[in-house]
Each structure stands twice: as C-alpha cells, then as structure tokens.
Amino acid sequence: MDKQNNNENMPKMPKFNMNWIYALILISLVVVFFTGGNSLSSSSISVTKDYTAFMNYVEKGYAQRVVVNKKMSTLRMYVRAQHIRDVFNEGTKNTGPEPFVKVEIGSVDNLETFLNKAMKEKKISSYSYDNTKDDTLTDILINFVPWIVLILFWVWFMRRMSGGPAGGSGVFSVGKSKARMYEKGNALGVTFKDVAGQVGAKQEVQEIVDFLKNPAKYTELGGKIPKGALLVGPPGTGKTLLAKAVAGEASVPFFSMSGSDFVEMFVGVGASRVRDLFRQAKEKAPCIIFIDEIDAVGRARSKNPSMGGNDERENTLNALLTEMDGFGTNSGVIILAATNRVDMLDKALLRAGRFDRQIHVDLPDLPERKAIFNVHLKGKKTDETVDVDLLARQTPGFSGADIANVCNEAALIAARHDKKTIGKQNFLDAVDRIIGGLEKKTKVMTAEEKRTIALHEAGHATISWFCRYANPLIKVSIVPRGQALGAAWYLPEERQITTKEQMLDELCAILGGRAAEELFTGHISTGAMNDLERATKSSYGMIAYAGMSDRLPNICYYNNQEYQFQRPYSETTAKIIDDEVMKQIAEQYARAKEILTKHKEGHNQLAELLIQREVIFAEDVEKIFGKRPWVSRAQEIIDSNDNTPRLEDMPEEVRKAQEEHEAMKASENCDNAASADVQDADSKNSVTGE
Question: Which of 39, 460, 594, 615 has the most crowded Cβ, counting Cβ within 10 A?
C-alpha cells in the first residue's frame, strides 16, 4: 500500500510523442535562420551612404558596377575587391565577396548623366536597373517558404508512416489488422432468406447462430459450441453469402478479412496481424471472424523449408493455429472460413478444436436451382411464359453465381430487343449464350458444309432419342455459336450414382455425330474433335478409375497426388488400359452406326428439317420418331416433389368409389341436358302458339 502511495506522489514523467521531434526540428531551423542573419540569403554585407559620398567613391574609382532601382529611388554600388578595406575598413573575410553601398537618389536623369560620364572615363564597368519593390516581409516569406514546405512534408511523411490521419495504413502500422469490422452483422443486410437452397449447410450453421443468441442453452448441458467452421465448396456456391447470413442472423460484431490480407512484403507482419485481429475480436466478444480464401495463408507447411518453403507464410499460419486453440482463451469468438481448396490446407488447421466442422456447400441440385431462380427473379419484370422448372432443368452444374448471371443476361437481352418484360425465350437465349457462346450468323458456309453439320447434329439427336439412359433432347441447332459450328442441347441427368449401362449410352450418343458423317457422307471431318475428346476422357474414366472393364475389373488407379510424376500403374497395365479404351469406343461406335442404319429415314428427315429451319426442338423430333418410351430422371424428381395425390396411386376401394362418383356425375349431367332440351322445346312451342 505504501509503495502504491509513493508511486502516486512521484512526479509523472511526460510520455514520449513524435510531436516533440517535430517541435525540436522547427526550433532548430528558426534559430539557424535568425542567427545566421542574411547569410541564408546573402553572404555579403552592405552600408548606407549619402549621394555625395557615392559620387566621391565613383570619382576615386571604388565602384565596380551600379544597380539602380527607380521605384524605390535607391541604388546599390558594388565595391571593387581592392577597395573594400577603403570603404568598409574590413577585409573580404568579414564583408563577403560582393559588399555594396546603398544610396538614396534624387533625379534619375542627373544620375544617368553622371553614370554615362563615369563609364566613358572607365570609372565603373557597367550600370543596370532593378525595379523590384523592396519588401522586407516578402523577402522573409521567400526565405522561409522552402523551409516551411520541407517541414510540412516531413510531418506528412512521418504521419503517413505512423498510420496517422493522413494515411491510415503506414509503415509503423503495417502490423495492424486490415479486417473490416461491422458492429452489427445485420448491417450487411443479408439473412438466411437471401440464401436459397443449401438446406444442410444452413442447418449446421444455424447452431452457431443459436449459440450466439442463447449461449446458456448449450452451456447448461456442458456443451461447447464449435470454435470454427470451414465452408468448403466450388467457386460461386455461396460460401461468403452464407457467412454474411450467419452474421446477419446472429446480430453480433462481424470481422471480415481475406487470406491474402495477412501476406505482406515485411517479415513478421502476417503473424502480427493475426494477433491484432484476435485481440480486437476478444474485445468485441461474442463475435464472428470470417476469413475468406483461407488457403492463401493456411496451405500445408513444407517438410523441407529449404525447398520452396515460405517462412513468413508459415509463421503466419503458426500464429493462426496458436490463436485458434492455444493457451489463450477465445471464449465467444467463432471463426468461419471459406475455401475451395480444402485438400491444400494444413492438417493442424483442420483438427478438432480449431475447425471442428467442415460444412460442404455443394453445387445446387434441381430443387435448389429452382429456389435460387426464384430468389434472383425477385425485382425482375417477367411475363407468364417464364418456366422456372425448365430453367432449373436446363442449368445442371450451374452455381448460384452462374444462375444470377443467367438472370442478368436475360434482362440485358430483353432490353437489347426493346422488350418491356423478360420472356422465356430471353432466358433460353441467356443460357445458350453462357454455355455455347455468342451466335455467329455472319459466318459463311457452303451447302455441302451445312449438310454435313446437319447430318452430324441429327446423328446426336437420333442416338440420344433411342438410347434409354442418354440425356433428353431439348433442341438442335446448326447456327455457329462460339467455336462450335453446331450444337445439340440436352437436359443432363443429375444422377447420384451412374451405372455402366448409363455411361455406355451416353458414350454412344457422343459418337453419334461422327458415325452419321461416315454413314451418310462417306467421309469424316474435324467437326467431331470435341466429341472424340469427351468420349476418350469418359472411357478412360470408366476403365482406369471406375473399374468397369473385363480385363481390369474392380480396380481404381486414381491418383490424388497433384505433383507426382509417376503413374500409379505399370507399363503393362497402361497397355491394357489403352486396349480396353479402344475396344470400348469401337463397340459403341459400331452400335451408333447400327442405330442410325435402323432409323435411316427418320434421320434424313431430321437433317433436312434442320437444313431448312436451322433450329429444331424436341417436339419436331417427336413428330418424326414418335414419343420417347422412357421418362427422364429429372421428370421423375419433379413428379415426386408434386404433392398432389394421383388416382392410380390410391387403393382399389378408393378408385372404385371415384369411378362410381364420376359415373353418377355424368348421369346427372345427361339428365340436366335432357331437361334443358325439353324446356327449350316447350319455349319454342309457346312462341309459335302466340
């Protein structure tokens, strides 16, 4: 207690401040300026004399040159070096190299006469005029301006380096966190209503929101909320949007930062920013820290630091690991992170206690795409022709960002054609634009080239129509689009598992274009290069990865080592894989030719129709080949999601009762119709009776 009183009684020492340095610099400059006198502006002295003394000096030959100022009615006579002592009674060391005598003058005309006479007598070398006004204040300001500018620049530079008001991010504040802090997460204006689909991901993060709102619910049972959740998924699936929705629902402080913000050119900056970020978060707890693209800083550490290892990045990662689960406590601080490269993250970062959960945010399936379309269609003027179900079916593999792009592109297309609303065709054109590219109707083709392309695309359509597991056809076009000369649009089947028969049907449909060229034109072309590439990749995947081969059954040679230069199989096995691929493609090519030969007439009709109209739809194919005998998987899912009960699914008693009810209703309708006829006849008879 006494020590504390003694400390309080001791005089408080002033704290160090950078402003002291600025003040000392300014004082030093002022002292130098005023102690040096005119030495800063002039190194020579002057003396004031009357006009008579001036004339006497000129007559004696003391003057070197004369400078006359008419406005001030003064002159300066610069003294010759050999006569400086005669005038000033001092040597050149004290007077300077060019001392002068200052004289007030009367008549300028008399002075000019006197100076001209002196020049003829060679008593002065020259004389000139300097009509600038002698202003002492101006001279002082002119002398001070360079020093003032220098001082201001120095102050600005130091404040910039220290991160003061002039800069905000200086050299001395380089270790400060760059995270954007939102005092209330709902300031972002994003909730779970803005996140369509992703039901599983929202369910998992909902627990985090419930804990932040009502932590006692979990702590009373002895439970602990996960310290961190890692959002994993392809680009554009809504990971960042989901994190914003969590902050908006929880209404707690939200720190947002990118993984690249930790990386800097200075050593130790990343670790310092990590510590500063968590220090701020602890002060605002409970809160959420969101690190986007965490793979920039959380990449797996190298086993050999001398071989490409980055010590700075590893130090940053070590600081992050320590802050997330070290000796310090981070109660109430929840870390959310997003990445699409989870395989590159360090194992220590993914363990329980740091990122306890990995929440997978996958590409949306059919019902989720429908919900995402409904979200993005809000605020857009659409007409009654827009079919959301068709759009959802026609965009397999599209992320949420891709769907948003489709809706925006459709609006742009509608505006380009001066439409007041966005129609179904605008959305279809937008999907075609994103998938295939821009139409190139100006590309010139001969009749033979056009027929070859039509036969090729008709081959794809015919094979897909008669293969059960091939993707259902939407439309076929021979209008050049992007790099393709023609294209066929399908509704790809999004299967959870794929059988060998399904993959073979798709492989056969891919080879249908090349088979049609060979059968009906007698030659093959380079138009099937993309088809052959897809077919080869699909076949290699079936045999080398899925084990769908007779000679290599139930074997997978998949290698997830990205930088491994050796194949996980021998040369003999490689030869067997190549043989099996060639065999499989040859079989499906022969099968495609067989189907096309069987339906030769329908294929030719389809090709001719395609040449005439350039674009045909599934309805046109159905008129030629008849209705497709198989229902697509997508249609089965849509029908299953329809909750309307169907009569054929009811028990037999219900069906009988429904049939009796319909029969009674039909008989009542017949009786009503008969009575109505009788009434009409009576009314006619009464009219004629009148």
Answer: 460
Chain segment 265-312, per-residue pLDDT in tens: 556 677 888 888 888 888 887 888 888 888 888 887 765 554 444 567
| pLDDT, tens digit (0-9, with 9 covering 90-100), for 478-504 | 777 766 677 776 766 667 788 899 899
Name which CATH class applies to 21-134: alpha beta
Q: Give tens-digit pLDDT for 415-455.
A: 988 888 998 888 888 887 887 676 666 666 778 888 888 88
Given a contact cutoff of 8 angstroms between Cβ atoms, the answer to whether 178 and 273 are in contact is yes
Catalytic residue among 249, 314, 457, 506: 457
Q: Which residues pair with 676 in a beta bridge?
A: none
**Residue among 374, 40, 65 nearest 196 (CA):** 374
Six-digit token pair at 24?
């000392």
CATH topology of domain 366-436: Helicase, Ruva Protein; domain 3 (1.10.8)
Distances (CA, A) of 569 to 342, 556, 565: 27, 10, 12
- What H or E segment, with its residue span, contains residue 336? strand 333-339
Instruction: Decide: helix, strand or coil at residue 686.
Output: helix
Higher pLDDT, 240 or 33: 240
Could you read off the pLDDT of 182-191 as tens digits, one per residue?
666 556 677 8
d(CA 623, CA 177): 67
Task: Identify whether 457 is a catalytic site residue.
Answer: yes
- Beta-bridged to residue 325, according to DSSP, are none
Encoded amino acid at 438, one letter: L
447-632 maps to CATH 1.20.58.760: yes
Q: Distance between CA 76 and CA 69 in Å, rounded?
A: 8
The superfamily CATH assigns to domain 180-360 is P-loop containing nucleotide triphosphate hydrolases (3.40.50.300)
The ranges assigned to domains in the chain are 21-134, 180-360, 366-436, 447-632, 645-690
